[in-house]
Amino acid sequence: MEPLTSAGHTLYFESGLVALKNLIESHQYSKVFVLTDEHTSEVCLPVFQSFLEDFQEFDLIETAAGEENKNIDFCIGIWKTLLDFEADRKSLMINLGGGVITDMGGFIASTYKRGIDFINVPTTLLSQVDASVGGKTGIDVDTVKNMVGTFTLPQMVFIETEFLKTLPPRELLSGFAEMIKHGLIADKAYYERLKTTDYLNPAAIDIYRSVEIKNEVVTIDPHEKNLRKILNFGHTIGHAVESYSLANDENPLTHGEAIAIGFVCEAALSIKNSTLTQPELKDISEYILSLYPKYHIRKESFDSLLELMKSDKKNEDGNILFSLLESTGKCTFNCRVATADILSSLEYYNSL
Ligand SMILES: NC(=O)c1ccc[n+]([C@@H]2O[C@H](COP(=O)([O-])OP(=O)(O)OC[C@H]3O[C@@H](n4cnc5c(N)ncnc54)[C@H](O)[C@@H]3O)[C@@H](O)[C@H]2O)c1
Ligand SMILES: [Zn+2]
Questions:
Q1: Calpha distance 227→274 (Å, rounded)
Q2: Where does the record place the 3-dehydroquinate synthase C-terminal domain (predicted)?
């Protein structure tokens, strides 16, 4: 597949990894670091090395897996490790992992000695179609997601579906939600095609189109001043439900499961506050419920959810702002919505 060019860097698909070794050598980096988590060092690093003709000339930095480790304490540990290994400004960091690793590794690289080069090799579906594209790096502070971060582009991104073979089904389904979002906000035909796609078969998933959509949007508006906000469809309510679930549920929702709930609620909001039609809402609701487990949004959580939505960093002047569908495949942004409508949309989801 043809690489996609984005502002200042290139996204390579499939077989692109083969060329990475040459690219590293031609840049004459003083040192190469590979950042992994405990799972990707076990299942993805051997695949990565085999693609690069048994590549060995790097130092490995391994962290614990999971969102709870995407924080400043881990960054400090990794910055110190880089110092111990005498990393200088001509060093390269390769982030080999899911969104936690590409977000945190990008942040560490973009700030270490005021910035060193980094490359993203995303290994989850979510990080391939979303987190590794667009230049947002970041870490969480307490329960606030992505509170601190930078907009810094990697030198390159390598998207290789071979990695997805070891990914658990629930993680595949989580990433698939971002692809559904790309269809809903920008390409109705793609959304229709996804409906007939088996998400459990990585070879059948059209990752390329998803990355193309995200890349088009972030190239037009890299710093999220306007158009990029459409990528937040489903996320205002989805993030709140995700945070609440993380803090209160024994088996918390994944990001994808939470934003899928957000799609249904925000599609319901789009009926009253934008031009989405009732049949379109019905279609979206039915499709989401056919794929994602039904969750009960507890009535006693509604106030907390509203508070969480108010703390969303995309708000302006204290107003909760939504990106809403005008139709399936078309999205608008900066929509103010009455609190009563938000609560009705939660009730709508529960009633399905
Ligand atoms: N920067 C952005 O624009 C952006 C966009 C969307 C999401 N994100 C961030 O991405 C993160 C979520 O990413 P994620 O869902 O990839 O989570 P993750 O990085 O935690 O990965 C999920 C799990 O899968 C494991 N894993 C990774 N690759 C594997 C493989 N090939 N085989 C087996 N196991 C594997 C990981 O070790 C982890 O346990 C969140 O922190 C979110 O904020 C960032
Ligand atoms: Zn998301």
A1: 16
A2: 175-315
